[in-house]
Amino acid sequence: MGRRVSILVHSVRLVGAEPGEDVSGAWIRFDAGRVAAVGHGDGWTDADEVIDGTGAVLTPGFVDIHGHGGAGASYDAGADAIGTARALHRAHGTTRAVISLVTASIDDLAARAALVADLAEIDPAIVGSHLEGPFLDPGHKGAHTEALLRAPDAASVDRVLEAARGTLRQVTLAPELPGALEAIARFTAAGVAVAVGHTDADADTARRAFDAGATLLTHAFNAMPGIHHRAPGPVVAALRDDRVVLELVADGVHVDLDLVATVFAAAPHRVALVTDAMAAAGNGDGCYDLGGLAVDVEGGIARLHDGGAIAGSTLTQDAALRNVVGAGVPLAAAVRALTATPADAIGRSDLGRLRVGGPADAVLLDDSLDVVRVWTQGVSTAA
User: Fold this and answer.
1) Distance between CA 109 and CA 159 in Å, rounded?
2) Which residues does the annotation say bind substrate (predicted)?
């Protein structure tokens, strides 16, 4: 981490300062951790640090609303592990993150959500927690412990909400479970974004969940029924509902990248590129643990040791950016899916933009879209 100074980046391609914008020859000034000014051409003044951005791209800081760890550390393993994994992802452009927690007992999840709430009080780069489980369909459990899955009863919902102290940002649940629609109403009333996922829901059931207040689809296509021409399933229900954001894991393993590009075309401004990263991200192949389940990582692909189901990813958000742009998605659309769209999906429209007065969260990339520099609230880390 560096010290907070005034910073001027000029002659840069500024992408996503406002969602969808793409401006060449731009400049931007950061001061006291905030965006102080944005302009075009030569109307800039000196700062403590002046960076010539010729040939480079500057974007808002990336926002990951679904990730489980990295650098050999899992978010479920406590504060030190969260810090280790966050450092890895920050170096790859993720300036703000939701800490995703895998299925565990309600007692354990409450304790972990409370810990994340504690961390969020001292580190604004941690924007809260995401419970991916235990309210999931056993038939689409993926890398979750089946014995711990359960229906979302009112007492469990209230327990995790109380423990999180207003920092629970997202909950994934299967809407066909008993009590699910009531749980959606309770979570959304508390300001939590509810995602349909790990589900056997058909299109009608997904639509009922969206009407009840669910606004996300957890890692679209994965751990849910696929698209059939007579049974369109939850993905098509989400694509046709303007209220719903679709998470995509753009590693080329979870979803074919041509299909990822097709979703961008079918649902403009409603794609959130997430990592779903587990501990192996940035740490190489080997044997790992995810929520008490053994995971083998070979060739950067994480699969359960027993059964071979995909068990998260080894993705970073800058790699996701390169992957989708390589698949033909316009850069401004890809950046939006890493910034404004996921930020909006969890009710943080102050993030994912570079507006005057807003946080100086930014990523400087070279012409190959590799990370050169990252700022969180004006504090810099070199890649």
Assistant:
1) 9
2) 143, 222-223, 230, 254, 310-312
Stretches in the chain below the pLDDT threshold 70: 1-3, 382-383
Q: How far apart are CA 74 and CA 221, in angstroms?
A: 24
**Exposure string for 164-196, b = 16+ CB within 10 A, e = fewer:** beebbbbbbbbbbbebbbebbebbbebebbbbb
**What dotted CATH number matches 7-60+353-382?**
2.30.40.10
Q: Which helix (H) or strand (E) holds 70?
A: strand 69-70
Is 219 one of the annotated binding-site residues?
yes
In the chain, which residues fall in CATH 3.20.20.140?
Answer: 62-345
Alpha-carbon span 270 to 367, nearest angstrom: 26
For CATH 2.30.40.10, list the domain ranges present in the chain: 7-60+353-382
Residues 286/249, Cβ–Cβ less than 8 Å: no
| 310 is annotated as contributing to ligand binding | yes
Token duo for residue 318: 């800058």
Sheet of 301-304: strand order equals: 286-290, 293-298, 301-304
Residues 6+ apart with CB under 8 A from 49: 5, 6, 7, 8
Instruction: Specify burial of residue 265 (Cβ count, 10 A radius: 0-12, 13-18, 19+).
Output: exposed
311 is in an annotated binding site: yes
176 is in an annotated binding site: no
- Say what the pLDDT of residue 3 is: 63
Nearest 5°: phi and psi at 368? -100, 5
pTM over 0.70: yes
| Fold for the domain defined by 62-345 | TIM Barrel (3.20.20)
Q: Which of 137, 276, 318, 344 is catalytic?
A: 276
258 in active site: no
For 33-75, how does the pLDDT look when each residue is reduced to its tens digit (9 = 90+)?
Answer: 999 999 999 888 889 999 999 999 999 999 999 999 999 999 9
The H or E element containing residue 368 is: none
Taking the mean position of all CA atoms in its chain, how far away is CA 88?
15
Tokens of 255: 């979803």
**208 token code pair:** 């009922």
List, in sequence order, every residue forming a beta bridge with 26; answer none if it has no partner.
12, 40
